[in-house]
Write a structure and sequence with these properties.
It contains 3 helices and 7 strands. By secondary structure, the chain is of the alpha+beta class. The chain has a 7-stranded antiparallel beta sheet, sandwiched between helices.
């Protein structure tokens, strides 16, 4: 298991990561490519498909997951973000980090804001 301390700076610069989720400990795992942003010491992700996204459904049912970064397998625990000011900051960071990307505005649509999750070390 790897610590989240070292990868944070790489996550801030990495465009895409894979997240591994599963509905329950007994169910199969799935990997999905997602975008990630870092604010301060915290790592945030959001489902572009809103609450209909498979990985989002799985990680909210079972908040234990794994992110894959440059060959590292990093266990994480997902925590929902409800604070509107923080959600707004995450949106601004998505737009800054992915500026010029065609789908960047999709990450800040009203229907995806409540899928904002903080990934904490597991």
């Amino acid at each position: 298991m790897q610590s989240m301390a070292n990868p944070r700076h790489r996550l801030a610069e990495t465009e895409e990561i894979q997240i591994e989720t599963q509905r329950s400990a007994a169910s199969p795992t799935h990997r999905t490519t997602i975008w990630v942003v870092v604010l301060g010491d915290d790592i945030y992700v959001r489902s572009v498909r809103g609450k209909a996204g498979r990985w989002y459904k799985e990680i909210t049912a079972n908040p234990s997951g794994v992110i894959h970064l440059e060959g590292q397998r990093i266990p994480v625990h997902a925590a929902p973000v409800a604070e509107s000011k923080l959600i707004e900051q995450v949106s601004k960071e998505y737009l800054r980090k992915y500026q010029g990307w065609e789908y960047a505005p999709s990450m800040t649509r009203a229907e995806v804001l409540d899928t904002t999750l903080r990934l904490d070390p597991a």
